[in-house]
Amino acid sequence: MPSTAQCRICGDQVNEFYDFGRQPLSDAFPAPDADHSSEFFFRLAVGLCQGCTMVQLMEEVPRDRMFHEEYPYVSSGSAFMREHFEGLAKRLLATEMTGDDPFVVELGCNDGVMLKAMAEAGVRHLGVEPSGGVADLAAAKGIRVRKSFFEESTAREIEAEDGRADVIYAANTLCHIPYMGSILAGVRALLKPTGVFVFEDPYLGDIVERTSFDQIYDEHFFFFTARSVREMAARNGLELVDVERLPVHGGEVRYTLAPAGERTPTAAVAQLLRHEEEQSLAEPAALEAFGRNVTRIRDDLTALLRRLKDEGKTVVGYGATAKSATVTNLCGITPDLVSFVCDTTPAKQGRVTPGTHIPVRTPEDFAADYPDYALLFAWNHAEEIMAKEQAFKDAGGQWILYVPDVRIVQ
Ligand code: SAM
Ligand code: TMP
Q: Residue ranges of the domains in the chain?
């Protein structure tokens, strides 16, 4: 029986449209000899608000369980993403930060992948990052970081100490934060009237179009559209004034909000809103159809891995992504189907995957004895990974992909 919940944006009713079942914390990689009976699980289900159309999780995981000293995700791990953030920093410097002594604040700056360029340009900046380990990596690069969760009280303290910001920026962070009222009140308190709040996150339109269901996991609480962001902004004295589709992480949108009435929305906003209307993105039927596609991929992937096992083939996972927790736990992929997962992140290596306990090893282990197949969990970095793993292909290895459907790539 699908559940209902209260919308974290407008308070109206959220109606569940897909249940991924019992899932672990996607970034909690236990030690192999840990007491697995203490592993944290919750029900991962997703729903649509019948009022403001925001798609969101039905259950919330307490933030300290996810973002803490040991949070393992390090943003600079991808060369492509480093370039992406450097490009954005340069653009903000040239367009929004041309006045006297400009000031930029980033929420969820992680290891400083974006703020590094701001620090190098000598502009006033501040990263707000609750996960201590990655915040230390940023500080070691000479970036000014405040180790805390951003919320209204934090914003008021920053405003008292540093004054108001020209730009507040957040990448792959805003969608992680259920307490949105407090965040946007903080943005209002900290932003100059002429300033902008720019954020980029996975786009529901791409998730539905590509059935990239593994974007749905504990940390991703909201799945934005131009329509739901416009609603969310309007309820908090802000206005959606620009949108830009991005090719990163399987399809994202960069939203620009400004204090209401301060800027004229670009034509891109109206265009994306029209596109969403055509895609019926706010209609329960479209999201239920998405759910049926998820079930089909689950069944196809499970059948393929079982067949390969029966044929005596070897399969290794590539990229112990947070996203892969949803896939492995939904499909029941355990070490009998995928012998290990390789990943470049030191904090994940030597550990096991959340819930399914597949060993995580290094890319060197992958290269030492190539498997017959590599299941590409980090499909959003496919181009970069396939280019650097050409030797795997040359040795006869084949990639398994499951977004937008299950297929083998020679
Ligand atoms: N911005 C980086 C990027 O795009 O690669 C990091 C994204 S990472 C997926 C999300 C980050 O948001 C984590 O480093 C986490 O600690 C941080 N975070 C979570 N809640 C936050 C909050 N309330 N305020 C600031 N950062 C937060
Ligand atoms: P993401 O999809 O959230 O960016 O996570 C990517 C994961 O994949 C992260 O754990 C690092 C890993 N990874 C590799 O192991 N090799 C690579 O070449 C890239 C780009 C990522």
A: 4-58, 75-279, 286-409
